[in-house]
Amino acid sequence: MDPKLQPVYQAILDGDQKASHQHVQSALDAGLSAEEILTQGLIPAMAEVGNLFECGEYFVPEMLISARAMQAGLSLLKPLLVASNVASMGKVIIGTVQGDLHDIGKNLVAMMMEGAGFEIVDLGTDVSPDKFVEAARKHTPQIVAMSALLTTTMPKMEMTIKALGEAGLRKNVKVMIGGAPVTEDYARSIGADGYATDASRAASTAKFLV
Ligand code: B1M
After folding, report:
1. Considering the entire predicted model, what is its pTM?
2. What pLDDT score was predicted for residue 123?
3. What pLDDT shows up at residue 84?
4. In angstroms, what is the span from residue 39 Cα to ligand 1's centroid?
5. In this structure, are residues 139 and 91 in contact, taking their beta carbons and an 8 Å threshold?
6. Class level of CATH domain 3-83
7. Would you tell me how many other CB atoms lie within 10 Å of the CB of residue 156?
């Protein structure tokens, strides 16, 4: 890791929003790109937060304040990540599936897709299959994108695909899924059209799908 990113990494581990904001700004001022700060500072720090949670050193409150610190840093990067001169590629509705409140990855995917020229309708978190269907009817998107971070909420992706089918909308939209526990095999097994491991691949997959 670039030593200039160490304070960013530490601010996320400490859950310090102010420090996260300040150190991301310093890293930008020092000439690091938004992508470098994201992929070498913020994302590895959140992965470490997950490790610390798994081994019982961090609990839900620590994860939550680290997530807020990450959002504080991301707010500075967002305008840089979405800056785009690309003509409109189409519309994407995106949400984290029902029962799941994790939104950092979903927000990053939305940012990168916006940067790639898509119009984004963000349905937020805890989005039920019915809500996805209702939004697909209302907004007529080219892509329905779903994120899940919990193994227990992944089945909602399949239920949403089924609900889109039952509503007669499946043939008009491509469905993309992703999130830490999701795999390409899983995507294929539930009949999704696309899958990506990270936000920038999600944007290129979305372009490929339209
Ligand atoms: Co939770 N949590 N969490 N959590 N949390 C995980 C996911 C976990 C892996 C931690 C662990 O045990 N190591 C674990 C899940 C285990 C499992 O199911 N396999 C877990 C758990 C258990 C829980 C609770 C159940 C804890 C509890 O209450 N006992 C609870 C569930 C709440 C709920 O959702 N109902 C819970 C709660 C929370 C907080 C609210 C405290 C907070 C979320 C805050 C927020 O999002 N606003 C939180 C956090 C922060 C995490 C970790 C630490 C970090 C997640 C994150 O933001 N990562 C996480 C551990 C980890 O992931 N290592 C963990 C950074 C983000 C950039 O990555 O989201 O993976 P990610 O997104 C990536 C890719 O996955 C991909 O692109 C993104 C960017 O490159 N991607 C897509 C994501 N969506 C995509 C969609 C696409 C394509 C790619 O196409 C559409």
Report:
1. 0.93
2. 98
3. 61
4. 16
5. yes
6. mainly alpha
7. 23
Mean pLDDT of 183-198: 97
* Three-state SS at 200: helix
Atom of ligand 1 at shortest distance to CA of 125?
Answer: 34
Angle (deg, nearest 10), helices 43-54 and 6-14: 40
Specify whether the CB–CB gap between 141 and 113 falls below 8 A: no
Structural class in CATH, domain 91-209? alpha beta
| CA torsion through residues 188, 190, 194, 197, sign | negative
Rounded to whole angstroms, the Cα distance separating 114 from 186 reads 26
Q: Is the CB of 49 within 6 Å of ligand 1? A: yes
CA distance linking residue 73 with residue 18, whole number of Å: 9
Alpha helices (H) along 43-198: 43-54, 60-82, 104-115, 129-139, 155-166, 184-189
4 C-beta closer than 6 A to ligand 1: no
Q: Nearest C-alpha to atom 89 of ligand 1 is from which residue?
A: 178
- Residue type at 58? Y
How far is 203 from 112, CA to CA, in rounded Å?
Answer: 6
